[in-house]
Amino acid sequence: ETGVTQSPTHLIKTRGQQVTLRCSSQSGHNTVSWYQQALGQGPQFIFQYYREEENGRGNFPPRFSGLQFPNYSSELNVNALELDDSALYLCASRGTSGDGTQYFGPGTRLTVL
Amino acid sequence: RKEVEQDPGPFNVPEGATVAFNCTYSNSASQSFFWYRQDCRKEPKLLMSVYSSGNEDGRFTAQLNRASQYISLLIRDSKLSDSATYLCVVNLSGGYNKLIFGAGTRLAVHP
């Protein structure tokens, strides 16, 4: 197991609602990234947090936002949900090797109706 | 053009077969390379990092050709348990680590 946990495991929301997903990274890993994986696609980078600051962002609109806390746990918030936001949301913490290896949590499967 | 391209498959092979997956990437600034394995409705799990000199882990061999921007994965003596989607991944370093994933190649090993 990677030591990365996420909650909840599944979530159903309706269009226009807001959602918060949570992630606890592996002990000692201070960098957390979030990815969105639509059905049949590879994961797409949303953003990364390092020491409580966002330090990299993919091609996602501002309604996708996040936080990182002093214990390095993290949240992903999505406002004004759209049907296309239905996906598996993955949190990954960065390992200590120099090549940027990341370890993924089990994900939260979000369905927007 | 996608940043990381893979043959989507599926590859249907019998147990014991040797199967090879290929992947190309478009950004020559890519710094590190990986193969991840993803089982149905599960998270991606690191299979192996890929080094320029090539590397092997049991039945799995990975190769990288930086000049051609090409990555490969060879699986020998396929097992039923190898059935999964294999994701080719590159890391653009430089300030933060952004993993760029291919869409994955699906492998089905049958008895």
What does this structure look like?
Chain A is mainly β. Chain A has no helices and eleven strands. In chain A, strands 2, 4, 5, 6, 9, 10 and 11 form a seven-stranded mixed sheet that branches. In chain A, strands 1-3-8-7 form a four-stranded antiparallel sheet, with no helix packed on it. The radius of gyration of chain A is 13 Å and the shape is globular. Chain A starts with a strand and ends with a strand. Chain B is mainly beta and 111 residues long. Chain B is 0% helix and 56% strand. In chain B, strands 2, 4, 5, 9, 10 and 11 form a six-stranded mixed sheet that branches. Chain B has a five-stranded antiparallel sheet with strand order 1-3-8-7-6, with no helix packed on it. The model of chain B has no long low-confidence stretch (mean pLDDT 92). Classes of the chains: A mainly beta (113), B mainly beta (111). Chain A binds chain B through residues 2, 31, 33, 35, 40-45, 48, 50, 55-56, 58, 88, 90, 92, 94, 99-107, 109, and chain B through 4, 31-32, 34, 41-46, 49, 87, 91, 93, 95-104.
